[in-house]
Design a protein that fits this description.
Oligomer: heterotrimer
Structural class of chain C: mainly alpha
Number of domains of chain A: 1
Shape of chain C: globular
Number of strands of chain C: 3
Shape of chain A: elongated
Radius of gyration of chain C: 20 Å
Largest sheet of chain A: none
Chains: A mainly alpha (about 90), B mainly alpha (about 120), C mainly alpha (about 160)
Distance between the termini of chain C: 23 Å
Order of helices and strands of chain A: HHH
Number of strands of chain A: 0
Order of helices and strands of chain C: HHHEHEEH
Strand content of chain C: 5-15%
Largest sheet of chain C: 3 strands, antiparallel
Largest interface: A-B, 54 and 63 residues
Helix content of chain C: 55-70%
Strand order of the largest sheet of chain C: 1-3-2
Helix content of chain A: over 70%
Chain lengths: ~90, ~120, ~160
């Protein structure tokens, strides 16, 4: 009983997150300006991280927490670097 | 399939929290598509990054604690990290956009932005 | 005490983070966590950052509770705005707020609070005039937002940091 509830519930959560990934990807492709694309990328990273976490619960394995943390860190670094690039036109001054 | 040994109410709570969190995050992404100006859109992903993230982390922690695999709330690390970094990225991005709108005024930016503070 | 633990709060945070990262409370992990917690603050001292002196613990607890409640509430408010089909009478815009708070850590906390709350975004702070530029998604009346930032958060932050 509880296995089915978990299976169905977590599948729904995964589908919702994949839809969110699609919407964020739409903003990345559509733009119209660079800052919109970067914001879309940031949302993409966030939802990918949440998807990995839900995936970890679904497989019942504790190993997925670190990948989620790494995706979050990469997302942060990438967004900061890109925002810096928008402001100055170069990342390293 | 795992999780069969969990009580039913724990399974319901975990599944409910995961769906609610994912739904909030989806709503944030939907706002990203729906809202019309950039400065409005910056607000949208915060939904997933605050309450949505918390709910999914809570679901994960309840699941692992209830199944006896791990009791330490390691999800706290992810939560703390996101709480500190999300504002930094959003503020930087908003300032970058503001900077671009100010320097190329009248070009593509439709929303009027406040002028830069005077530097003496 | 000062020499040994220059940043007690930082040490505690590092200790907990290290335990959580290594996912065990076995003696080796505790030894590593202790090492990190004792060594890292000395690097901070070399960087010359000042110690946070936390005053008014009651104010800290009240602020945390307020912020948590506000985040949940404004998640609902922003969700409503996004789901509203016709509502085109919503106005978003920029807002200037003069701040009394000068402490850099206090300002950082305020920035995190305001940006983490859906619907408000800290954009720019001018150190010279102490003016904060805020973007608000639902700018019904400016007075309410100014009162929210100044009355609700700033007074508590002033008590904690200054």
């Amino acid at each position: 009983m509880s296995a089915q509830i978990l299976d169905i519930g977590l599948s729904i959560a995964q589908i919702l997150l994949v839809l969110a990934l699609g919407l964020a990807l739409f903003r990345v492709i559509r733009g119209p300006r660079a800052q919109d694309r970067i914001l879309g990328m940031d949302t993409l990273y966030l939802n990918a991280m949440l998807l990995i976490l839900v995936f970890g619960v679904r497989t019942g394995s504790d190993l997925y927490l670190e990948p989620a943390l790494i995706v979050g860190m990469l997302g942060f670094t990438a967004t900061v670097a890109l925002a810096k690039f928008l402001m100055r036109g170069e990342v390293i001054e | 399939m795992n999780g069969a040994e969990l009580p039913v109410w724990v399974a319901v709570v975990v599944a409910g929290l995961a769906i609610a969190g994912a739904g909030l995050s989806l709503l944030g992404a939907f706002g990203l598509v729906r809202l019309s100006s950039f400065y409005d859109r910056v607000h949208a992903p915060t939904l997933g990054a605050t309450l949505g993230m918390t709910m999914i982390l809570l679901a994960s922690w309840i699941y692992f604690a209830a199944s006896g695999e791990r009791l330490l709330p390691r999800e706290l690390l992810v939560g703390l990290f996101l709480t500190v970094t999300t504002p930094v990225t959003l503020i930087l991005l908003a300032r970058a956009a503001l900077f671009r709108d100010r320097t190329e005024s009248g070009a593509a930016g439709k929303t009027e932005v406040p002028p830069a503070p005077l530097v003496e | 005490m000062r020499l040994f633990l220059p940043h007690p709060v930082l040490s505690l945070g590092l200790f907990v983070a290290s335990i959580l990262l290594s996912d065990s409370v076995a003696p080796p992990s505790i030894a590593l966590a202790l090492l990190v917690a004792l060594a890292a603050p000395h690097v901070m001292r070399a960087l010359g950052s000042e110690t946070v002196r936390l005053r008014a613990p009651g104010a800290i607890i009240r602020l945390s509770a307020l912020v948590l409640a506000d985040i949940v509430r404004s998640n609902g408010a922003v969700a409503q705005i996004l789901l509203d089909r016709r509502g085109r009478d919503r106005v978003s815009g920029f807002l200037h707020i003069p701040l009394q708070l000068k402490h850099p850590y206090g300002l950082a906390v305020l920035a995190i609070i305001l940006t983490s709350t859906p619907g408000t975004l800290w954009v720019e702070y001018d150190r010279g005039s102490g003016r904060l530029l805020l973007h608000v998604l639902d700018l019904v009346d400016e007075e309410r937002w100014v009162a929210l930032v100044k009355g609700r958060y700033e007074t508590l932050l002033l008590r904690i940091f200054e």
